[in-house]
Every structure is written in C-alpha cells, then in structure tokens.
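Reply to dn_fold:

You asked what the input looked like. This is it:
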Amino acid sequence: MKKFIALLLVSILSISVLQGCGSSGSGDVPSVPQLSDNRVINVWAFTPEIPDAINRYKEFNPSFDWEINVTVINDQDGAYEVALEQALVAGGASAPDLYTAEQAFVMKFTQGGFSSFAIPYSYLIDDLDSKIAAAQVAQYAVDVGTRNGEIVGMRFQETGACLIYRRSIAIDTWGTDNPAEIEKITGPGWDQFLVAAAELNAKGYSIVSGDDDIYKVLKDGAAQGWLVDGKITIDPNREYLFDLAEVMHSNNYWNGSVAWNESWNADMSDNGIRPVFAFLGPAWLINYVMADNAGSTYGDWAVTMPPVPFTWGGTWLIANQAIDSMEKREAVGKLIEWVTLDTSDTGFQYFFANGTLYDEPGTKDTVASRVVMEKSDGTLDFLAGQNMFDYFIPAAAAARADHWTEHDRYIDEWYLDQVRMFYMGNKSKEQAIADFKQKITDELGFE
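and this is what came back:
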C-alpha cells in the first residue's frame, strides 16, 4: 500500500508542476529557442541497450557533438519506474530528455498519468507516418505509443511470442519436430493444447514448466482490459485461467515452477522434476535466458506459433516535452529515428537483428521493423539452424495490445496470486475473485 501512496503523491505533484508550467496536461508542447548552450542529452533507461546503441551512433556519426549523460536503474520492484516519475516531475537541467519504458508500465508514460510529459514524435521526426509505414512496424506496438492520435513512443525490439519447444520430445511423442505440424498439434486454442498436454504426460513429459508460462499467453487473449470505464473487469478469457490452472495442476501437466526461479531455469536444461516440452515467449527469452540455461538441450529447440497470440515485454523510447531547444529536439529525433525507424543496413535495427552492432558477432534478435527482419538472417544454432523470423514475424502481426492498462504490472501479479491460492486448494474460486477485486479497490481505488 505504501508503494501506491507514494505513486499517488508523485502523480499529484506532477499535475501541480504541469499546471505551474502552463501545460494543459493534454500534451501541449512549449515553445523553445532554436539554439542552446546545453550540449547534454540526458538518457534514462532500465537496461544498457539504448545507451549502448546511442554510443554506437556517436561512433558512426562523429559530427553528432552531443554529450550523452546516461542513467541506468534496474527496475526490480519498480525502482526505475518510480525514479523516472520523480525525475520527470522534478524537471530542471538533469531531467530525462530521452527515456525508456517497458511493457509492464509503458502505458502510464504514453497514455496514462505521466503521458503529458511526452512530446509527440511529429515534433522530432519528419515524415513520421510514411517512415512507420515503410518500416512495417506491428500495429499493436504503434497503438501502445499513441496518445490522442499522436505517436509519443516507439520501440526497436519486437516481442510477439512463440511456442519454443524441444525437438527430441516432439519426435518421441508425435514422430515429428516439424514446426508446421507442432503448431497444429498444440493449437490453436486451449482445448487442443490440453490434448497435447495429455499426450505428453502419457510419455512422461510436462508441456510447460509452470503457471507463469500459461498466464502470460492467456491474459493476452482477453477482449477487454482489467479496467473498463473505471470499473474492475475480469474478461472470460482471463477467468478461464482458474479452470485451466486446476486442470494443469491436478493432472501434473506442468512442473509447478515459478518464472525466474531456479526450478524454472532447471527445466530448460532437463534438470527439473520432469523434462519440459515447451516455453512460451519472444526471441529475447531464447537469447538472454534459455540459451544460458539450456545446457545439454542447446540445439534441441524449435519455434512455432503459440496456442493464442501474445506479446511479452518490449522497450519504448519517449522524449520529454520540456527539451529546451529546437536543436536538442532535432538531435533527440535523430537518435530515436536511427534506433526505431531506420531500415537501412546501417540502422540500429539491422545491426540488432543480425547481431552485427559490434565487430564481433553478437546475439541476433527480433526487431520492430518487419522489413528489416525479412532481409536479415534469423538462423540460430539454439534452434538447430531454424530461421526464427519465419515464425516471429507472423507472431508480431497477430499480437494485440487493446486490452492493456497502465496498472497491469500490479494487477497481473495480484490475479495470479489468487489463482494459485485456488488451484492449491486454499480458496474457492468465488473467494479468490472477491479477494482479487478487493485488492484492486484497496490499492488503486477502482471498484
């Protein structure tokens, strides 16, 4: 509760500061001088990816004579989110000029309580709409960064997700590891997924590691968000998690792990309770989690479409409306465009997709631009040479974000907590739902 009181106080303070600056709170952008003696761009992020990219841009463009002042704060327990709010409200010379926001809280900064700090990209980048269209960015990612018809945030990384499965287990169970066949065996939809789970179980395998793996997919299948017209709403697709989790738990279709703990990591390397057939997630889950934990299973994996389209994670770039000169706006715009919209072979997205940002080969990843992925090499040794873009591109096209809210980070956690209480036999479904709604009322004030 203390965390939310603190967030509320920051929000109230932000409104006061904006009113004192003459802002209407609707995204009005103050006029600024053409030039500035301040040659520093303050960049805030929760990981080093964007600061590293900007430093690389400076190396490629020696005439870009701006000093980059970087602040990176790990977002564990919401530390970055709260610090960013405070820094935006405080303003001044050290305020963030360019800052990042993750899926868990991006809506707050693009459409919610702190979105009035964001300057529309149209003030920073010429021909914005045509460049977005040319890059073929997934529509849901554009929608998330849009406030009142104006784009205020874009991202460089694509996080539409796939089913990431063990080839050897697929062959042992169904006689094939062909992604097109596995897609039909495991979906679409949860009924088919449960059939596959039963068949895997009969062979001694768990279909997934734990409830987190299911929940991230299921909640994105909702037609409505947690809050509709200010009222608590549990979409039928999300309520189904109670029934699905009970079936998974009672039939031992999963290993009962919790994401990010040791047992979850162990299930990636065949060192868990039982061998696990699949994980569900974007390319970053492969590159930065599974590859490091796979052990002897490295190279025994493939990707196909998930039972329900979903997305997980992603970083949006946002610029501060309080940038103090046209010259700095132009400089920030160049950085944003190079990172998020440049589809050339010298743009950040091409380097990121192919793992070629530095002289030594690096990790390949999915990017916001479909055009870039289609001309890039997405083959991975982890996937036994499969081109991951063949499936991550359609996964991005199928993903949605019309059910996201700025409070999802916390509400998602509260909901899964109650579902666990239910399937572990500690609460009835009715009591768990009632307690979930009461939690939202107590912490956020919605009913």
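Confidence is low (pLDDT under 50) at residues 1-26.
Hope that clears it up.
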